[in-house]
Amino acid sequence: MSRTEMMDAEQVELPLRLRVASARDLARGIKGFELVPMDAAAKLPAFTAGSHIRVRAPNGMLRKYSICSDPADQTRYCIAVKREESGRGGSRSLCDELGEGDPIDVSLPDNAFALDPAAKSYAFIAGGIGITPILSMIRSFGDMPLAAWKLVYLSRHREATAFLDELQARELRSRVTIHHSEGDPRRSFDLWPLLEQPKPGQHIYCCGSQRLMSAVKDMAGHWSSRQMHFESFVEGGQARPDDRPFRVRLASTGQEFEVPVGDTILQVLHRNGIKAASSCESGTCGTCRTRLVEGVADHRDMVLLPEETDTQIMTCVSRARSELLVIDL
Q: Which residue, 71, 106, 141, sits at the end of a domain?
């Protein structure tokens, strides 16, 4: 196990011990888990649509998953896990080793991707397993939607598309567009008609790969940032071939730490006992926004505006182009 994997397997306390009521295949390479209280009569802590929980895989690694069940149902948390062959091993452990009846340690729900109740309408864009938080949102509307909504759900192949039957139900056909590219770039779905003209009161919610979210952000540059919401299912961003170690210094104390390849600024701060706010840990919610005092950042978030990049940084994903960053928590 690598050093980063060992850090993931630290004994971070998770307050809820739940039981796997069911574990089933949702699509090729995707497994669904229904998590319930050990005491069948107990209720789970409430959550809102778009929330996520952290779970401890059988191999000890901690992973974050969106809750895809209806927030009105406090008897269970449902999550969907995509088995990543090239990942660090958390998803493989969950899919291969966790079964019905097994206990699992879980965090309290947290929400970095909440619905804006003031929106007049919602446009959802989901890529692959990014459907999970959006499905919870759709389920939360029930039979009487609070606002008009529509969904564009993109995947490579039909057989690898989770929740397909539910989203193809007759009552949803006028609201839901499902597109399979079959891995052919020429079959990519054109999102421009959806994003070309900002609509008063409409909010865009996008969850999927970094590539999809970056494309949506680029196309929606003329939208108000308050109308755009992103959620990533990749914590801490993905390492890139040209990543290199750098140092981060706290302006208030002068403390200095090295940030190795594979670790984030936020992880290093927490590891050294520095309190720093965070939530999504994927560069999409803005909770870890920190003032950048000195140095050149390598921004990898979905939040900062161009005019903010010289003075702000998201510590959960962004790295450095200079050897040193000085930040002010």
A: 106
